[in-house]
Amino acid sequence: MAQARTSTQRHVEELDLLQDQPRGGDAAEETLDESADPLEESGRTIDSSEDESVDDMVVEDIEKFENSFVGINKRYRLINRIGEGTFSTVYKAEDLEYYKYNNRWDIDERERRKWSSPARAKRSARKPHYVAIKKIYVTSSPIRIFNELELLFDLKNSDSVCPLITAFRHQDQVVAVLPYFQHQDFRDYYKDMKISEMRLYMKSLLTALRAVHNRKILHRDVKPTNFLYNKWLNRGVLVDFGLAEREGTDWQQCNCTLTPEERRYKNTNSVWQQKVAAWDVTPSMPKTDTRSSRRANRAGTRGFRAPEVLMKCTQQTTIIDMWSAGVILLTLLTRRFPFFHSADDIDALLEITTIFGRKKMKEAALLHGQVFQTNIPSYSEYGHSLEKIILWCTGRTDSDKNAPKKELDDEEKDAVAFLYRLLETDPSKRITADEALRHPFITKAYEESEAEDDVVDLVEV
User: Fold this and answer.
1) What is the pLDDT of residue 350?
2) What is the band of 16 on the pLDDT scale with cuts at 50, 70, 90?
3) What pTM, to 2 d.p., does this model score?
4) Residues in CB range of 94: below 8 A, 6 or more apart
5) Which GO terms describe its molecular function (predicted)?
6) Tell me, what's the pLDDT at 221?
7) In a 10 Å sphere around its CB, with 0-12 CB exposed, 13-18 middle and 19+ buried, how is residue 205 labelled?
């Protein structure tokens, strides 16, 4: 195993990945743009403690990993498997060489020393320190692996973003060593969160997204299992940059970047509009189309992709992550996970249409030079309000028309007003992470925190 650390600070090993050839063939490449289904993957990230019993299959998996990656057990004591996804497996491990290095990445240790007395800090100086070891599958493209490590290294000092400690390579295997963060499974708390707790959750997530977006990086896979949240500390960490990329990668001009006048001219003179004018009716879809199909990055998880990703926008920006954040907030407010559960991109578009209606989806499609059509009669022209969706999902609708109309409470209305800014089908109108952190719904979290501090001060007096 190649040396990757110095006596003062750990560094990312220079991985000569670009010269390698990806393994797995076409079958592997077909799935590279998609994470596992959110319902399947939600149970694959667990918070383990050392005294927790480890499944025999996990023990066997750990032994196999240690035997295949020579020298890993001399530096780390693998404890449990805590995550399993489409492209990697993550293990909890004790760092056996922690005290040989300058561990500026250790947020928890910094906080502990900050608030501990010198005597207590000395007593706990030799306590075990844990890391997360991410084993990246050999079927992953070498360029993808290199890209993930490079982005993690660039984000090493960012707020609420999981930093990269170091990385190793042994033959065709690559592992990334990351901090281990205690967190709770999303399914254990999302149904019981109060609005004040949702506010803190979203504040932490948006803080991470602001740091990522300020560096012009698209995460592309924002979802609950990629945001490790500790509800006791009101702190979360954004992880898994396996699908992330820099803004502007493989861009080709899309109609959404044109001025309204230019876009109107292109749409008016398009093949579709010429057929509409000639036939004086909406034409049917052609059985054969000689034009080349549009190719665009569709990386992400089903149910969390923004409309522009589904519509193959060729100039996607960091704003796509804000839609995913909106889906998480919608999940919290409706108490339904996953909220969207589509089989493919067409199903996903129809699910969004159910809420926002045909008119808005047609406008969104035209924005990207596409045409949206459906003959399913159950989809209304204007869809349903988010307020109605939340009331319906939480069982607050009444079939009795004479019964008093049920409404959301004031805090829920504040959350919905914020949700509309996140779930905006036009990406140019969608709120950014920086703007979101200044939105009244989020800033109220600061006010509530200050109020709690005042209560503590009064108690101490």
Assistant:
1) 94
2) very low
3) 0.84
4) 76, 77, 79, 128, 129, 130, 131
5) ATP binding; protein serine/threonine kinase activity
6) 96
7) buried
Cα distances (angstroms) measured from residue 321 to each of 149, 212, 217, 431: 20, 10, 10, 11
Q: Is the pLDDT of residue 190 over 90?
A: yes
* Segment 163-174, tens digit of pLDDT: 899 999 988 899
Residue 235 has φ and ψ, to the nearest 5°, of -140, 135
The residue among 84, 86, 185, 187 whose CA lies nearest residue 133 is 84
Q: Report residue 323's pLDDT band, with 50, 70 and 90 as the boundaries.
A: very high
Angle CA(40)–CA(192)–CA(54) in degrees, nearest 5? 45
For 133, 232, 334, 419, 456, the CA distances from 412, given in Å and listed in that order, are 39, 22, 11, 10, 27
User: Cis peptide leading into 338, omega within 30 of 0?
Assistant: yes
With 0-12 / 13-18 / 19 or more C-beta atoms within 10 angstroms meaning exposed / middle / buried, residue 64 is exposed
Compute, in degrees rounded to 10, the torsion defined by CA atoms 324, 330, 335, 336. Answer: -50
Strand partners, 84: 89
CB 200 within 8 A of CB 231: no
Q: Distance between CA 282 and CA 65 in Å, rounded?
A: 59
Q: Is the pLDDT assigned to residue 372 strictly greater than 80?
A: yes
Residue 221 is a catalytic residue: yes
Catalytic residue among 61, 221, 240, 321: 221
